[in-house]
Design a protein that fits this description.
The protein is of the alpha+beta class and 551 residues long. It has 14 helices and 15 strands. The strands form three sheets. The protein has a six-stranded mixed beta sheet with strand order 5-6-7-2-13-12, sandwiched between helices. A six-stranded mixed beta sheet has the order 8-15-14-11-9-10, with helices on both faces. α8 packs across α12. The longest helix is centred in the C-terminal third of the chain and has 31 residues.
């Protein structure tokens, strides 16, 4: 196969191509904000030629960036082939914001660019260099990479390939690009027939080998013990979730062609402190924050949040850290119901923690892996027609994904990266996607919203900030209450008196210490015109962004 110079996409990667529609682009991306640094030109703009040279000199490390999609005849399965007409200028674009270059202006132009699908006649990525941010002291880079090329975990790896932990600008000579021969249609057809016969046998051999191997052998190989019964149970669970569907909300419906983008930055140490105090994970804190924000947002939309079955899709990476391929998708997903009926922020964390622990103990992500294994030998035209119907069944309301990034500064040709806000594609019928990326002590939230379904995206972002502040205040209140209870000393006991035979000894009097409740007192439903009960001086309805949470 190497003689032709092409690779077949996995069923999971191909699925992202088949799921794409004019109103549902399937590219992932990010808005990265940099100090302009040494990339500044005499006129104050960005040296785009220098940036293009930096990128092109590193493309040999990521050969997928010089490949495009072709389709096998009859089977209609996508394959990667080298783009013989690759032109770096097509993929790296350059524009400028009108002055003064405010964050609002950057969000508007980034949303318009992000809404456009990638051109399948070329390699499936674009980079837009946007100069003039904050009066010219900063510039931004909007990345667009098709989901069939990369998953979130691999995206973090690729950003490190293209950037450097050193501020020193090092010129790396470009490696000559020698595209491999593209196979003819007859060659693709012959290989497709051969692979079509061999793939089911390979899958069967893999499952049989796994089933007949001993637990010791699987443990030594780093594999979990998975039986056919486990696969069937996992498949039944996912089928049940898909058949029931999630509750419809105003942010769910038919997607339009336009998007809104917004973002938010939090100190990562604040999130870690909540994780330590509450004994949970960072993901639990994130999902509880999203839960609190949704309660506020949907209540303003006149929704009874107590009766909603609101579910999110939470991608779970199956990529091993030592995997030799940093490209392609190695991801499954959980369907996580959010406890919108629960009022208290800490109680929301506890409910989510219980749900995620149950998901970890189950084989919830195994069903997706099993489906992808089976899909490898299903003809492309069948999957191409079946996938939109399956994905459009509405089992979830939105997607929330969290990708850890480097906690050290990165530089691009000497320009320091200040923040990176990820952009996740919207799911069918889901008008809002939330993605997070941790970088250099910051937790960067990126919000992608359908223009019509989520017209007030900025309000939801403020709700996220308010929900996090409410959780932080409640956690501090519980901590102080526990410390007060632990350090309080009982009052001195009265000296016992002697009792006569006719007079019983009086019971010892013990001073009562007023207990500070562990959990904050629950307030009323949250709304714009409602007044909630203030807890420890904190009004859970108020939505200002605190000094600890910045936009």
């Amino acid at each position: 196969m190497a003689r032709y110079g092409y690779e077949r996409l996995s069923a999971q990667d191909a699925g992202f191509l088949w799921a794409e529609t004019p109103n549902q682009p399937m590219h992932v991306g990010a808005v990265a904000v940099f100090e302009i640094g040494p990339l500044v030109r005499e006129n104050g703009g960005v040296d785009i030629d220098c940036y293009r040279e930096q990128v092109e000199s590193r493309l040999h490390w990521i050969p997928r960036y010089r490949q495009k999609i072709e389709w096998t005849p009859v089977e209609r399965w996508p394959v990667w082939v080298d783009d013989r007409n690759f032109d770096i200028a097509h993929h790296i674009r350059h524009i400028a914001l009108p002055q003064p270059g405010t964050p609002a202006q950057l969000k508007e132009i980034a949303a318009r660019i992000n809404a456009r699908r990638l051109d399948r006649r070329h390699a499936l990525w674009e980079v837009w260099v946007i100069e003039g941010v904050e009066g010219g002291s900063q510039f931004a880079i909007l990345n667009k990479i098709h989901h069939c090329m990369i998953d979130g975990a691999a995206g973090a790896d690729l950003s490190q390939v293209l950037m450097s932990p050193s501020s020193k600008v090092e010129d790396e000579p470009s490696v000559p690009y020698l595209p491999r021969p593209v196979p003819t249609r007859s060659e693709l057809l012959g290989d497709a027939i051969s692979e079509g016969l061999s793939r089911p046998l390979s899958l069967a051999r893999s499952w049989i080998a796994h089933a007949t191997s001993s637990p010791v052998q699987r443990a030594s190989a780093g594999e979990l013990e998975v039986t056919t019964a486990d696969r069937l149970r996992a498949f039944a669970e996912v089928a049940g979730q898909a058949s029931s569907g999630a509750s419809p909300t105003p942010m769910n419906g038919e997607l339009g062609p336009h998007r809104r983008l917004d973002w938010l930055t939090m100190p990562l140490d604040d999130v870690k402190e909540l994780r330590r105090e509450l004994g949970c994970t960072i993901n639990d804190v994130v999902l509880a924050t999203v839960t609190g924000a949704l309660r506020r947002y949907l209540f303003r939309r006149r929704m009874d949040v107590r009766s909603l079955d609101f579910r999110i899709s939470a991608p779970v990476s199956t990529r091993r850290s030592d995997h030799d391929r940093i490209q392609g998708n190695h991801v499954s997903s959980w369907v996580v119901p959010l406890p919108l009926a629960v009022e208290g922020p800490i109680e929301q964390v506890e409910a989510i923690q219980s749900t995620t622990e149950n998901l970890k103990a189950s084989n919830a992500s195994l069903a997706v892996e099993t489906i992808m294994d089976l899909a490898e030998w299903v003809p492309g035209p069948i999957l191409e027609r079946a996938l939109p119907a399956i994905s459009g069944s509405g089992p979830v309301n939105m997607i929330v994904t969290n990708v850890p990034g480097p906690q050290f500064p990165l530089y691009l040709a000497g320009a320091r990266l200040l923040a990176m806000y990820p952009v996740v594609p919207l799911i069918p019928g889901g008008g809002l996607g939330v993605a997070l990326f941790s970088y250099e002590g910051k937790l960067c939230w990126g919000f992608n919203g359908d223009f019509e379904l989520v017209p007030d995206l900025g309000s939801f972002v403020e709700d996220v900030a308010a929900a996090f502040e409410a959780l932080r205040k409640a956690t501090v209140g519980r901590y102080l209450g526990r410390r007060t209870a632990e350090t309080a000393e009982p009052a001195a006991k009265p000296r016992p008196t002697e009792a006569t035979e006719d007079e019983p000894v009086a019971a010892e009097s013990v001073a009562l210490v007023e207990e500070i409740p562990e959990e904050p007192e629950a307030g009323t439903e949250i709304g714009e015109d409602e007044t909630a009960v203030a807890v420890n001086g904190f009004d859970p309805v108020a939505t200002p962004i605190s000094s600890a949470v910045g936009r």
